[in-house]
Design goal:
Helices cover 14% and strands 37% of the residues. By secondary structure, the protein is mainly beta. It has a single domain, classed as Sandwich (Hypothetical Protein Aq_1857, Chain: A).
């Protein structure tokens, strides 16, 4: 399904220790239509819903939304603590292109050119 780096698992474990609603809570990951490249990642701490898939990595739990499994298959979740770009990062082999903000991508199985900005350019999303 997906993999979680040791750094991401460590940081996610810390996050869940302070923000989890229940013992079932995890980082809920989904993709939704939007963003400058066609699809955007959605991440929030939450509980699983019917149809979701759960990936356990030590004390960290990633919940993959059931309707997003195909677009996230083979992804790696990492964590960056760079001064200007800190946070959880999704490395997605299913993305043909992504914008500079790193939160939006064009799926490899869609028609080329569906994105609004050239590959790697900032889209203005925070």
């Amino acid at each position: 399904m997906i993999s979680v780096t040791s750094k991401a698992a460590e940081e996610l474990g810390k996050l869940l220790a302070t923000r989890a609603n229940s013992s079932e809570s995890g980082l809920r990951l989904a993709v939704r239509r939007g963003g400058c490249a066609g699809w955007q990642y959605e991440m929030k701490v939450g509980d699983p819903e019917p149809g979701d898939q759960i990936v356990q990595a030590g004390s960290a739990r990633v919940i993959v939304a059931g309707d997003s499994v195909d677009r996230l298959r083979g992804c790696e979740i990492d964590f960056s603590d760079d001064l200007t770009d800190a946070g959880f990062k999704v490395h997605n082999p299913n993305a043909a292109r992504s914008c500079g903000c790193g939160t939006s991508f064009e799926a490899a199985d869609e028609a080329p050119g569906a994105h609004a900005v050239p590959d790697g350019e900032a889209c203005g999303n925070p």
